[in-house]
Each structure stands twice: as C-alpha cells, then as structure tokens.
Amino acid sequence: MNDEIIDEIKHFDGLIDEEAASLLIRERKGELNLPKIEEADGDVSLYAVICSIGEVEKISGKKVVNTVICDETGCCILKLWEEKISNLQNASEGDTIKIIDAYTRDGYYGKEINIGRNGRIEKVEREMICKKNNFIFMEGIVEKIEPTRVFFIGGSERFVASAIIDGKNVKLFNEKIKEIMKAVGKKVEIEWACMKNGEIHITSFSKIKVK
Predict the structure, then answer these.
(1) Which of 62, 69, 147, 153 sits a CA distance of 20 to 30 A from 84?
(2) How far is CA 14 from CA 6, 9, 109, 174, in A?
(3) Could you list the pLDDT tens digit for every one of the 211 residues in the chain?
(4) pTM, whole model, 2 decimals?
(5) Are residues 60 and 120 located together in one domain of the fold?
C-alpha cells in the first residue's frame, strides 16, 4: 500500500478501504470517469443529486431510509441501512453528492443503489442536470380513502390504505396515510410516487402537498 493511499484512508478516518481510496485518488486525478445512474451496474461509485429523502422506517428490526437520487440519465432509489443513515446528516434535498463504494441491485421500485460496508456519501460542489423519469407526478382532489390495513415484512408491521385521487386508484403506506386523511376533499400535489404492478404507490420518499 503506497503513501498516497494510506493518506487517503487517514483523511476519511479509516472509513474506506484500499480499493475505495485508490478509486477516489484516480477520480480526483481525472483518470476515471464515474458511471451514470442508467449504466450503473454491480459495484459502483457515482455522482447524483438528492431529490427526495424518505422517512426512517424499520424492516426486520433494522432502520432504513429510501432516498430518490438522479442525474442526467434518470432516477433511482438510494437505500441506507442503520449507521449508514448518518451519511445524510450533512446533506439536503437538492444537494449533489458523490456515492463511494456502493453496489446496485433490483429493488422493489426498480434499480436500487445500496451503500457498501466501507461505503460513504460525500457532499460536493457540482452542477448537475436531472432527468426525472421512472417516477409519477400528479395532482387532484382526494375523493376518498379506504380503511387502513396492516401487513408484515420481516416481522415488521406496515400499514397500507387505498384512496382515490383525481379519479385514480392509489395505495398509501404508513405515515402517508395520515397525510392523505387530513386532505380528504382537498386538492393535493403528489411528487415522487411510483408505479408498481399497475398501481400508483405513495410511499416513504413521496411528497404530498396540500394546495
């Protein structure tokens, strides 16, 4: 291990390994072009803009946050578990970040990027254009909401309710149910909803604005 890599690891307080340190050094020197979201596959590091930070949820007893990120090729979910959630403390919606030592997988709502064991998020000053594909933006009157049902994932309870907004059937999960209950009969604007099995899902990272 050369001195440059040792210094890079020290700079990140030992939170990255030799491979991640080498990647950062090469990228900083312009020797490496990081992939875009659309082409990201396998182990990746990339730049992205934070579009929508989801609520903290629990799955199988572990805390998780789903966040929507995007670049000029499209959007996907960035998933952070447990201690990795703290990576978002110094970042806000609209910020550009560098995601280091992550990996891709097929998630519930399409491509998903997970932070690896030695991975991290770094806020950077970088202008980026975002392509907001794969997500749904809509507005309309909340006509009615059905009774809430409960189901379990990995031993953790989740709540779901069906509603009709602008004549469209949608499904709401957990805290989003409470938000819609307060807006029955009112016009709302929905951002970052997802299509799943022909249904519109309003979930942890979706935004509801009462007009």
Answers:
(1) 153
(2) 9, 5, 33, 37
(3) 788 888 888 887 777 788 778 777 776 666 567 889 998 999 888 999 999 999 998 887 888 999 999 999 999 999 999 888 888 888 899 999 999 889 999 998 999 999 877 788 888 888 888 888 889 999 999 999 999 999 877 677 889 999 999 999 999 999 999 999 999 999 999 999 999 988 999 999 999 999 8
(4) 0.81
(5) yes
Give, as one character, the DSSP assignment of residue 167: T
Give the tokens for residue 23: 């990647």
Residue 85 and residue 17 share a domain: no
Tell me how many domains the chain contains. Answer: 3
Q: How many angstroms from the chain centroid is the CA of residue 22?
A: 26
> Do 110 and 168 lie in a common domain?
no
Domain span holding position 40: 35-134
Q: Tokens 């491979």, residue?
A: 19
Do residues 86 and 29 both lie within one domain?
A: no
Report CA-CA distances (Å) from 69 to 9, 96, 127, 135: 26, 9, 14, 11
Q: At what angle do helices 3-11 and 18-28 cross, to 10 degrees?
A: 100
Chain-centroid distance, C-alpha 67: 2
DSSP-based three-state secondary structure for 86: helix
195: nearest Cα among 175, 164, 170: 170
